[in-house]
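Course exercise 7: structure representation. Students receive a sequence record and must write out the corresponding structure in token form. The form below is the worked example handed out in class, using Transmembrane protein 238 (123 residues). Read each field label carefully; the graders check that inputs and outputs are placed in the correct fields and that the protein name is recorded exactly as given.

STUDENT ID: A-19
EXERCISE PROTEIN: Transmembrane protein 238
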Amino acid sequence: MAAGGLGRCRLALGLALLLDGAGMGALLTGIFARLRVRGQDFGDLLIYSGAVLVFLSLLGWVLWYTGNLELAPDELGRDYGAKGGTLARLARKISRRWSRRQPGPLALGPVRGSQGPPPRETV
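STUDENT ANSWER:
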């Protein structure tokens, strides 16, 4: 985890907190305030839109949580080792190109002490 205890995906955390705050603000305003404009009550609109914003904040929380999961390199190689097939080759090619272009915490570099991918098992 990064220093400060917020994890690596601060943008997703910010999105989740922003949507939670806006949703709860709209929800509570719709419940407790008497909002009338030209004789029409807008409390229901705020209640529903606040509930939708709080629900959408779950997307940010899921992104933040999954972005902070850590896998050991040997477990990653065992579960997602080199598999055959055209789709798997295409996915690896796209992933390698994307990883080379992305500097920063998302780019996966070589792990110290590793000796390459695990040997393939033949059945």
